[in-house]
Amino acid sequence: SIPGPLNARMDLYTSGTSTPNVIYNGDSSRIGGNQVYDWSYLYDTYYSWYAEYILQDSPYRVGISGDYETGDTEVTFTVEIMIEDIDSTLDIDHKYIELFVIEDHLYEYWSHVEEWHDTRDVVRVWITKSATQKIPIEISEAGQTQAVERTIYLQDNWDPENVKIVAAVQTIQPDIIGYVPVSYTHLTLPTKA
User: Fold this and answer.
1) If both were cysteines, with which of 31, 50, 113, 181 could 58 make a disulfide (CB 3.0 to 4.6 Å apart)?
2) DSSP-derived 3-state class of residue 75
3) Burial zone of 14 (CB within 10 Å; 0-12 exposed, 13-18 middle, 19+ buried)
4) Are the CB atoms for 122 and 9 separated by under 8 Å?
5) pLDDT digits over 144-162, tens only?
């Protein structure tokens, strides 16, 4: 087991390691870079896929609002999705709002490369990970909106100035995670006054 935040991150991957893996198009997977952690050659390949997907428009718009006072340990927030102007009814089967609590800038020791690094955007909590916490999309026509409210509790070892709440729309089917062109957004907790 890896101590600290990387252990929590490892729990989010099915590869049994804290090395991130990417699943794209619902059936293709890539774990990490390579045996010596040289990932730079992968950039052009992944960037071309990203560039292709990012140009696809999404009918969904996602917004987050919330209240946080410096020193609070509780954050209540609302996620609202809206369907833009479309000419047809959307298929909402297997589409969900996914929610994550992210902490940025964790200075951690990476034992594989024997160096200290600023770890970026570590998922501290996947709010909607379990089947009982899933939030199905309930709207399917232009102009409709759906809002959900949730509360998170900040842990003592988190730096609230580096915490973000991320919301996205995802297609989730048994054994398949598919790509949905989507707008996603995040809420950053305000810094000290």
Assistant:
1) 181
2) strand
3) exposed
4) yes
5) 999 999 999 999 999 998 9
